Amino acid sequence: MLPREAYTSQVVFDWERRRFFDDGWTCVGVSSAVGAHGDQRAEAVGNGGSS
Fold it and tell me: Furthest-apart CA pair in the chain: how many Å?
């Protein structure tokens, strides 16, 4: 188990946001949420907009 600060620290949260959400794409759904093969769906995550 991680220490309490790993779940409550603003510093840790900011680091996770930069490393996991602000620098690329993240899978946030399943293939049944889009129409056809090759289609895409944008979702806003963290500070990023949909792109």
Answer: 43
Per-residue pLDDT band at 25 (split at 50, 70, 90): confident
Dihedral sign of CA atoms 42, 45, 49, 51 in order: negative
pTM of the entire structure?
Answer: 0.51
What is the CA 28 to chain-centroid distance, rounded? 7
Of the candidates 14, 17, 13, 22, which has an alpha carbon nearest to the alpha carbon of residue 51?
A: 22
* Closest C-alpha among 4, 31, 8, 23 to residue 46: 23
CA distances from 27 to 2, 3, 4, 47 (A): 24, 27, 27, 16
CB 41 within 8 A of CB 33: yes
